[in-house]
Specification:
about 200 residues; mainly alpha
């Protein structure tokens, strides 16, 4: 019974957190990140500022909070891929978890445009994605040929793949969402994997 109550609390917390983040993103997209206060977000969401801080530690966390969960989901999906599959194919499949997030293409475009259109958010986004590298590199490493540089190679592959995804997202936003994100990702990966 206690376990069921804990699960319900966690689900409720997740739903409330998602609704607060969505409200914030809508305000950020409409009024600009720098022009929107946390008090305005709390008011629009119908909660107190204190309640808002129970779910998010800062304004940046409110805008970028979902990236941590995305990174964990991507790492989980990578770990589920066949061990003998090419790392790049596994990374592409794992990154597709991003498209499973329940949102409309218009809302996703708002978020991506917001992230890359604000300098502090762009820096925070890069920092969160660096944590993805920390999650992915140890999963990539055992798939690489044994060498003294295997850990370095795994980090380089993870960093390069994340950078390709970021470049694809930026291009997707520049095109107004009128392209397939993973076609753009494939183009970015081909550019760095092309033999010299």
């Amino acid at each position: 019974m206690a376990q069921k109550q804990t699960s319900i609390r966690e689900q409720t917390r997740s739903v409330v957190r998602s609704l607060l983040a969505r409200t914030a993103i809508e305000l950020f997209a409409t009024h600009g990140y720098d022009n929107t206060t946390l008090d305005e977000v709390a008011t629009a969401a119908g909660v107190s500022r204190r309640t808002l801080f129970n779910y998010f530690s800062s304004k940046e966390d409110l805008a970028l909070g979902g990236l941590s969960e995305q990174g964990e989901l991507i790492a989980e999906r990578f770990a589920q891929r066949p061990a003998d599959e090419d790392c790049w194919a596994s990374l592409r499949a794992a990154f597709q978890a991003i498209e499973e997030i329940e949102t409309t293409p218009e809302h996703r475009l708002e978020i991506v445009t917001l992230l890359f259109g604000n300098e502090s958010l762009r820096a925070g986004h890069a920092e969160k994605q660096a944590r993805w590298q920390d999650l992915l590199a140890p999963l990539i490493e055992p798939r690489l040929p044994d060498s003294g540089h295997r850990a370095l190679q795994a980090r380089a592959i993870a960093a390069a793949a994340i950078t390709c995804l970021q470049a694809a997202n930026q291009e997707w936003a520049r095109l107004g969402g009128r392209a397939d994100l993973f076609d753009l990702y494939d183009t970015a990966v081909q550019a760095i994997r092309r033999p010299a």
